Amino acid sequence: MPHGYIITEWTEDQGLVVKLSYPEDLEIDLDDMMRIFYAHITGAGAAGNVLVRLEKARSNVSSYFTGMESDMPIMINLMLELGEDPEMFGEAVLKEINEDLVKYLRQMSTNISQSYEIVKTIKLYLRNTLILLDRLKNLSKEQRLAQIYTSEKARTILEALQERSLSRRELQGIIEEKLQKIIPNIEYVLDPFIKTGLLMQDWVEGDTDITLFLLTDFTIFRSPVSKLIEDAKKNIPTPEVASKYLEEVTQFFTNYKPTFEDNLKIARNLMNPDNYDYITLFRERGYPINKIPKGPGESLDQIGGLLKGMEDDQILKVIKDSNNDTIWVFLLTDIVVQTFYPEYLIEKIRKDRMEGKLNKNVAIKHLEFLEAAYKK
Question: Could you give the C-alpha distances from 174 to 78, 153, 166, 182, 348, in angstroms and in order?
């Protein structure tokens, strides 16, 4: 589990100073702070992310820096266990967290009179963030597939392996060339591929590096919620609400066309543990808004904020019953992550082998794996 966050700022008069830490007893000495800072400013000192191993603090640090040219040169340091890698949480999640924290810190610097309240808000946000990150280590299969979809690195891996099997060294070279960044631990990026059964890793006779074989592919899209539609046809929960729900669903899917941007949006909702809990809950039935089950310590305001975001993404729909003013919440669209057998690879393997682009032993092994996967 992550240890916490330490936020530091570079100032002309004081150098590098700790602006905020959570938990408050989390400490880092000046040598380690400077080591992280130097990792960022080596070269142009541009905004970006680094992963630094701190032996003294017994921690890996995933650090985001706003850059030396920023009006507020801030480092947001996520303190991890030694051996932990930020890839396990998904780059999209960490990017969103860093953006939110920078927004709060800018508010604090421009509204000095409100800084105390903003600090309280940041600490609450960090507490909830650490809970979220801990939950992200235990995702379901469909959430891990959504995690792959939301990661630029993981999508690049999938695209490369949709072409042909590759050694880990070859794959790392392709990713680094396409993304123009160093990938220090490709094993962590591959982790969701292995856990979901998309990939098989094995040695091929005569090779000095392990080879990766794609066995299963997947797609993500929106789908009507069959259980809710069947209920609505039976006038459940009420005739008026059921009629409005069927109208909303029909209208949405009449105009629905999957796009990459929309798929990213729904994938992010799916891999967020809180959103995923509500998607699972609302797959079975709609709820009056004041009767939605709450988690321990959750307030109605917190639930309302979360549900509003999902409504904006057209995943949930709020419907009012004019007979008694009850406000109902329904799942407007389900999110389906569907795996499928990559039959297209068989022809690619045959063609690459005929053209001399693929080692014979690699081709045979991949076809054997695909045959076994097909029989399953």
Answer: 28, 11, 10, 11, 19
